[in-house]
Model the fold of this input.
Amino acid sequence: MTGSTSDAILTVEALNAYYGRAHILSDVALQAGRGEVVALIGRNGAGKSTTFKSIMGLVDDRRGRITFAGNDISRSAPHEIARLGLGYVPEDRRIFTDLTVMENLEVGRQRPREGAPEWTPERLFTLFPNLAEMRGRLGGGMSGGEQQMLTIARTLMGNPLAILLDEPSEGLAPRIVEMMAHAIIGLKAEGQTIILSEQNLHFAGLVSDRAHVIEKGRIRFGGTMRELAADEAVRRAYLTL
Amino acid sequence: MGFYLVQFLGGLAQASSLFLVAAGLSIIFGVTRIVNFAHGSFYMLGAYLAYTLAERMGGAVGFWSAIALAAVATGVVGVVMELLVLRRLYRGPELFQLLATFGVVLIVQDVALLIWGPEDLLGPRAPGLEGVVRILGRPFPKYELLLIALGPIVLGLLWLLFHRTRWGTLVRAATQDREMTAALGINQTWLFTSVLFVGSLLAGLGGALQIPREAVNLHMDINIVVEAFVVVVVGGMGSVGGAFLAAVLIGLIQAFGILVFPQITLVVVFLFMAVVLVVRPHGLMGRQQATARGAGHVPEAPIHASGMMGRVAAVGLLVVLAALPALFGDYALAVLTEMMILALFAASLHFIMGPGGMVSFGHAAYFGLGAYGAGLLVKHLSGGMVAGLVSAPLFAGLGALLFGWFCVRLSGVYLAMLTLAFAQIVWSIAFQWYAVTGGDNGILGVWPDGWASPRWAFYYLSLVLCAGGVLMLRRVIFSPFGYALRAGRDSPLRADAVGIDVRHLQWLAFTVAGAFAGLAGGLYAYSKGSVFPTLMAIPRSVDGLVMVLLGGVQTLTGPLVGAAVFHALNTEMVRYTDHWRLTLGVAIVLLVVIFPQGIVGTLARLPFFRRKEA
Done:
């Protein structure tokens, strides 16, 4: 049922994750092709963030097969995964508040990577013009929207082949959400592969090619955005509040 | 005027040395969240290495290269400790690394003794800086001027290192959020190793620079590490600038304190720290400590009241203990008596550390207060043993009530350091107030009453009081008070929100723990027949920590097993080997690496001991 792509860059199969005795993810499977924007849609607590954290190696107790750019990363450490070119933008942003904007970007910097767009602070400032004016500002002194932009820019500094973008629109003012959507569309135009999680179906629809719907740690739907839009039953069962 | 100026400059020179050591400690703590007890040992190693190298190489070039080489070599020793020991423990419970670094302290002490011998070693003068300069007519050593300059220079270099290099940026990022730093592709393992190198190098440099000033000796380690902790805490953990400011203040307080309060020199610095912490709970330049994210710390499994098996085992143990006097002679009974007393002491410390979530570096204060509570009664009022054993917990409990009020206002390492400060204050009172306490001559003749004077009788008395004390502490842990206390530990905010007065509970718990430690101290006084200030000195507090951590903080039987193992290791090793520190240190390090949850904590995770799910 998944509109699978032949040159998948990220493939997740039978992913299970646990926090202590609690079973959080059950046989999650998803896939993203090069240059695609794929959305993982679900309600609060459905398992979106845990899915991303598990892919990134940040959940200790995880089982399953995760392949990224031809490498098996199911047992790799977070820094190894990041160095293979998988970027991660956490939902709570996690800006280094004691570091300046430029220093935050420096922490994310990695060497240019073949097959990925090459980012410099200057190029990122054209994508997020707000940041250009606050290079020396401490991360702790920025607004939520500015922090959200910085956290994406910081991950892009690693010149990733693909990025996991956890709820980019969460908690932002409508005007900022719009800017965020433009930025993501801009990234897509650069050829950046993006897997993003969303509660907001409208936002996901603006930027994504395909969607997976997750509920209670299981994938309930996989298909194009258009198919999801047509599937009233899925939307009513898993997405509406 | 000249006199005061020279005194002032002397204080600044001392401050520079303190700053070097404290900066290293602060950096290591900031990134790894490890309270590195071995930092003073690295300082001492730096001094010994510089001494040997300077002797070998000779000459001006030789001297300065010796200092540099000694610092680098000490850095390498820090790296070795990280690679062999600490690296295996990052995911363990916090403070467990502290135990490992304490093992390293013991190892370094004996290794230094083996290599350099027990005598004080006087190093060469610094070539070109042997003489004095006259300042307002007063002589002042030239070498001290160099030290005064060195402090700000190192501060500047560290600032550049942390703010103008990629490495520094990464270290600051990891200090704040390790997990996120890893998710951005930074291999923290090597970051930590390099931080250990820089921090230990600074300690080694601080030590190496001492050789023209003072004789190198085997006591340098503990003295400096305590002072360095004070500096780091006063300045604010993890703040290099704060460490500098604090080092200058403390250097000057030491230089002038001796003029103003010659009677209480030992305590002035700790009083200062106590005042700073009460006014600024996170130090002069410190901030509210963000919990180090991704420190890999696993939430503790809740403790359970023991089931049928546990009760049978406890009764069995009591029966065995009660039967022992029939089998053993006086020496063994004396050792066993001490073991039980230490078990009660450890259980009382565990009570605030485990369920209370408050780490104390100065719990010996209450052990000692108990002992003095009994001893002073004997000395000044010729009181009997029963009165002494009543006054011991009262005296200690009152002390804990007073100090606890201040301590529970802080948390984490700051709280721990404040407990240490109070312990040092109490210790120096006992040490310096000759008229009342007898100073380091102690109080002699604290013997049990006639009926309890045979070894076996005193053994039974101790068994009853210690077992009773341990059982009472257990009861409290499983009472509503204990539940509320644990709730406060796990989430102060939520506990507050459901109406628990966390601070008040902690204060009460601190007092209860102090009183039981005091009971242990009182028993100890009667078992030894004497009371000395060492009962409340830092090593005794550290012993308590080692016992609790060795057994496992989040288990109830842990402290008892820890006390038994520690005391047995201690006594047996002193009997059979000259190098008991080395052996004990290696044993502690191995135990920590093999049992990363403490002995009982690790055993409890084995399937055999695991409770069946209902």
Summary: Chain A touches chain B at residues 20, 56, 58, 77-79, 82-83, 88, 90, 94, 96-99, 103-104, 106-108, 110, 154-155, 158 (CB under 8 Å).
